[in-house]
Each structure stands twice: as structure tokens, then as C-alpha cells.
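Minutes, methods subgroup
Present: GH (chair), OT, SY

1. OT presented the first of two proteins processed in the latest run. Sequence and C-alpha cells recorded below as shown on screen.
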Amino acid sequence: MKTMPAAIQNIYARRSVRQYQDRPVERELIEQIIDAGRMAPTAMIKQPWKFYVLTRRESIREFSKAIIKTLAKEMVHEGAVGIAKLAMGALYNLYYSDFLKAPDIFYGAPVVIFITAPKDEPWACYDTCMCAQNMMLAAKALGLDSCPLGAGKAVEHTPIFYKLRIPYPEQVFLALIIGYGDETPKAHKRIKDNVVYVDDPEPGCN
């Protein structure tokens, strides 16, 4: 059996990690990770993304608490539908995890990066997602772990959003957490019967 190229091995090794060591990430590594994000494909080479980075524990905790409060309010307003939407998401920590007494949507990670793009950029969602994937793979290659948080978008509805200094018309698409992982999650089983070779003849056809 052939050995997989290093890039593919890295893809298979990456996991969404939700436990982190109490250890800061060097600024040089953060810059390398962001540079990898900048190399992502982008529609018409617009490179719409911007990166807002938190590295102070106090700031990360403050934003974590504000986001959880905001999500909790949204859940109440949306009723049963809201509970269904959020039960498997960010509020999982609040009700079911070790963060019961001190919930932390960022899982104790020492780096939080909010990725933004202009509201009126039609392809920004795809661009920022590809950018984030590059960043997570770069983090893994550098000996770090990561996890994407779609619930990071909720920061826009918190009363402390202004502290990120994100100007209009930018919007937050997601947050990435990065750090030295303190767990090794197993890979989930991948679905394999989801490929259709369109040019192959249908079964039973000559």
C-alpha cells in the first residue's frame, strides 16, 4: 500500500478539538495560520476576508459569556424550535458538559479568530469557509488543533460586539478556535455511498 502524501495525511488527521491545554500559542504560529487562510481560493480574487483575533484569556471569557447569554435569549424567543436548533450546538456546553458552572463556548482555547467579509459580497460564505479550512489544516501541520464554530456569528448580537472593532458592512461568518489540544478525538465514520459517476452507464445498460 502506498504511503499517502503528507497533505492528505494531514486532512485525515485533523479533528475538531474541544479540550485545550492552558498554554498560549506563539504569535508567529498564528500569523502562519492566517497566511495559510489567505492562500485559499476566492471568487474573482477578491479575498474578502478579515481576521479579528482574541488571545487574552479575559477577553475570550468575556465574549464567551456574552455569546451564550445571547444564544439563550434567542432560544427562549424561538421556543421549541430554538431549543431543537441549539441543543446540538453552542448551548451544548451550557447544559451537558464540564462547563456547567463556568460555560465556555470556546472550550478553553487560547486563540479565537472571528472571520468576517462584507455583507454584500455574494460569494463570501464560500470564500470564508475555504479560508477557514486552510487555516485548520495549517494549524494541524504546525502541531496545533482547532474547531470551527458557526455559533461565533452570534457575537454580532451581543452588547460587547463593538469591542471587536468590526466596521459596517462586514459580518462575522464563523469563529475558529486554535490551541494545543488536550484530547485526541476519534474520526467519525464517513458516508461512502454518496458518489455518482455521471458518465458511467447505468446498471443493466450496455
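2. SY then presented the second protein from the same run.
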Amino acid sequence: MPGPGKEAAAVMKPGLDRNSLFAVPDFRRLWCIGLVVFVVRWLEMLAVSLFVYNATGSAFLVAMMTMLRLLPMGLFGAFLGVWAERLEQRTALLIVVLVSLATSLVLALLAQAGALAVWHLAVASFINGLSWAADNPVRRLTIGQVVGSGRMGRAMSIDVGTNNASRMLGPTLGGVIFAGVGIAGAFWVSVVLYAVALVAAFRLGWRRGPRTAPTDGVLARIAEGFAVVRREPRLRGTLIVTIIFNVFGWPFTSLVPVIGQSGLDLGPEAIGLLASMDGVGAFCGALLIAWLVPPTAYGRCYVGGITLYLAMLTLFALAPQPLLAGAALLLVGLGGAGFSIMQATLVYLAAPPELRGRVLGILSVCIGIGPLGFLHLGLLADAVGAQWACVVSGTEGLLALALTRRSWRAI
């Protein structure tokens, strides 16, 4: 099968500006698929959180819904990395999009019939988590192959910036739809958006060149990926910071609707707007990073980003009124942009080219440790309330970051 062809080769030539990435049709298609996935993710997460909280009154169960989306990363991330290496990448991407579309369609039909239950959402969250776990070793790996290593940082800035923009649109849209037509409307919107992504995946022109069939087993190939991580201090440090973020930082997003409703006394539309402030800050941060941060500063941007994130999530939880809470979430997003853009970029650049799929799969495993954080945060929320649970988690994250400085300073 043909390789990246003239389009990808053109984008790898020096001297092209940042906008030249969008001149490559396959990058546009991969970007479009990512945009759909990101918007649907945030839209559904908010709608599901509101549905579950209104149905059960349990902050713990709300946190568990998001935890179930992350669980497949820890369980299957490394295997998905090997699977992605063996399967033609366009085919793998089509499978991922089709599974997501089918899941949202089933939920839409159940909700339309008035038969939707919390356990349906739990199962669907786990299935969607499989698609999420495949994003790094499938779609983002393909982005790197299409644009080339020299432009991976810029491509990730655009991709993560799109994710952050979706965090402005997704929660706001989810809150408005939930308030207007209920959760069924949210899932029908998801179905339509996934259909757009499916068309983009079908039109993808990239084909990975032929590879020699592997003679070793799946477990041996996974072990080889872990051995590379152990040998390379930059990879090891990057993955340690990823674990800290996903255990102590990111889980707090599941409780934003709970704090908005029970702590700040907001309605669904206002909760959606509040949750979108994280995305506003992250989108602005992504733009600044794309234009101002040189490759030599990627490591500092990564560690500085998580530090700001953890500090500001604590401030958000303590905010006595919506305006201050929104400002704190704006800064949470700014820090999150630095972390999330550099996460996949640093791993991609530090890993040997022939092992990138496996190492990106291991990155998904580290992200997938997040369910421990959601379990920890959910139990804390039921014990001391959602606000103080976030304060404790953010403080623990800053302490963990300080204690592991010797490990991550290599990046």
C-alpha cells in the first residue's frame, strides 16, 4: 500500500508556516474526526453527569461515570497499542468511530423510549472508554506520520486546541440540550456528529506502508515498549507526571456539575457555561503555546502546566460565587493546555519511531490509572462533600509532584 505520498511529504518540508498543516487533506480529516470526538465527549459527559445526579443524588456515582470512561485505558491501553501496529490504521480508525456511533445510537433509542437507566450509561461509558484509549495509538499516531516529527508539536497544539475549544462548545451545548429536550436530544446530536466523523474516516487517504509480520507475541511486544520507557528518562518522567495528573487532577472535572448545582445553586444552562470556562482557558493557552513556545521549552511547559492546573482546581472548589469559580476554571484550562499538548508530543518525540505505537499505548495505560483518582475523589465527595474533596485532591497532587521532582526533571 502507498505511504504518506506527496501531501505528507510537502508538509514535512522546512519553511512552511503553521497554517500549511491545514493544506494537507488527511490532516484536515484527522482533525475533523478529533473535533467530533472531543465535542461529543464533553457534551455527553455533562448530560450524563446531570442525569445521574438528578436520578441518584450521589456525587460518587457521578464520578464513577467518568471513571468508567478511563478504565479501559488502564486495562487495555498497552494491548491497543500493539493492536494498532498490526491493523491498517484507516481500518482501525473506522472501527473506533463506528463503535462510538453505535453506542450513542443505542442510548438515544433507549432515552427516546423512556427506558434509559443509570446502568446503561455505565456500560456505555466503558465502551466509549475503549474508543478513547485507542485515540493515542491510532488517530494521533497517524497525525504524526502524516505531518512528520518536525511538525508534531504544532499539530498537537492544533489538535489539543481543538479539544479545548470543544470544551467551550460541548458542555454549553450539553447543558442547553439537557434543559430543553432532555438527555435523548444530547445522544441524537452525538449520532449526527459521529456520522460526520465516519465520512471523514472513509475519505482518509493515508495508508501505512507494508510491515514485516511480527514474529514475537503480543506480551513480548508490550514488554519491549515498557523496556524502552525504563531506559529513557524523558519518557519515564513524562509518564510519571501523566499519572499524577490523572489521579489527582483531572478527576475533579466530574464534580464541576455537582459543585455548580449544590454549591453555587446554578441551573443546567449556567452549569454548562461554567464548565465551558475550562475550555476557554485551554483554547487560549493552546493558541499561545502554538505560536510562542519553542521545542526547547516543551518540558517546562508540561510541568508548569500541571502545577497551575492543580493549584487552580483547589481555588475553584473554594470559590464562594460563580464569577470567581469561572475565573479559576479559566486558569485551570490554561494550565491544562500546557500539560495536554506536551503529553503526547513529548512521548512521540522521545520514543523510537518503530515503537511509537506501543509507547503511546503505554501512555494510554498511564492515563487509564485515572479510575483510582475518580474512586478516591468519589469516596471523598460522599464523605466530606464535593468541594472539600477537590481541595484535598488538588493539594495531594501538588505534594506528589514535589516528591517526584527527581524523576521528571529530565524532561
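Chair's summary of item 2: Residues 281 and 330 are 4 Å apart (CA to CA).
Next meeting: continue with the remaining queue.
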